[in-house]
Amino acid sequence: MLATRVIPCLDVRDGRIVKGVRFQGLRDAGDPAERAATYEAEGADEIVLLDVSATPEGRAHGLDTVRAVRRVLGIPLTVGGGVRSHKDALALLEAGADKVAVNTAAVERAELLEEIAFRFGNQCTVLALDARAREGGPPRAPGGPPPVSSWEVLVRSGHEPTGTDAVAWAEEAVRRGAGEIVLTSWDRDGTRSGYDTALIRAVSSAVRVPVVASGGAASAEHLIEAARAGASAVLAASLFHDGDTTVAEVKRVLAAAGLTVRPAA
């Protein structure tokens, strides 16, 4: 049985970690290199580093931040934000990323996933999928079938709804080369109300690549719920940034619940 990975997420802006609710009201949460080193020492399996202002500001990811984190980190590092071409992906990989996450640019031009996967491999190609529940549930087209799911894709760091069905997009992204999906519930992000397990089940049952659950964790029990809903990995930010618990303690609780985890520090 594969181990459930525990992944701290570092959302960064201007070289600092930030955290908010539903991608709004961002507050400072520390230095990314310092946090990354701490989380690795506690037993984190990977780190996800997302530049949340790169796409809205129309720029590439801050490579200096990636290099600073890589210098102190020995575990896998996924980096996203501002990736619009395979050249942007190459720059992140050369700066120290192991995997590159793409959201907005892939929604606008799905071939980007194919280009990154062709040049660097599926294992390097991550779809960052931000989804929110449709108001009133999934609309039904006149005379046609309903969409696959009740969630739509958001882009530009959660600021812009697309109307694109989230589960259908996940399936297409995998066909085009995505080897992993970081699935964030906009509705739950920063709310500390638990993951959207229905969303996790819908996406994880539709694709055959690892799904990383994100958005809403406030306790180890929430991580357990996400794993049992089908997530291969569980991602959290505030849970760790605010000092509520540690990666090591979370892993102990997951193991006690019967989940397979890699030993913590």
In short:
With 265 residues, the protein is an alpha/beta fold. It is built from ten helices and twelve strands. It has one domain: TIM Barrel.
The class by helix and strand makeup works out as alpha/beta
Pattern of helices and strands: EEEHEHEHEHHEEEHEHEHEHH
CATH top level label: Alpha Beta
Strand content: 25-35%
> How would you sum up the global shape?
globular
Largest β-sheet summary = 8 strands, parallel, barrel
Fraction of residues in H or I helices: 25-40%
Q: What are the low-pLDDT stretches, counting only 5+ consecutive residues below 50?
A: none
Q: Looking at CATH, which topology would you report? A: TIM Barrel
Average pLDDT rating: 89
The overall number of domains is 1
**Counting H and I runs of at least 4 residues, what is the number of helices?**
10
End-to-end CA span: 21 Å
Q: What CATH architecture would you give?
A: Alpha-Beta Barrel
CATH superfamily: Aldolase class I
> Care to count the β-strands?
12
Spatial strand order of the main sheet: 1-4-5-6-7-10-11-12
Radius of gyration: 17 Å
Write the layout of secondary structure elements.
Blueprint: E1 5-13, E2 16-21, E3 24-30, H1 32-42, E4 47-51, H2 63-72, E5 77-80, H3 86-95, E6 99-102, H4 104-108, H5 111-120, E7 125-133, E8 151-155, E9 160-165, H6 166-175, E10 180-185, H7 197-206, E11 211-214, H8 220-228, E12 233-236, H9 238-241, H10 247-256
Helix pairs in contact: 1-2, 8-10
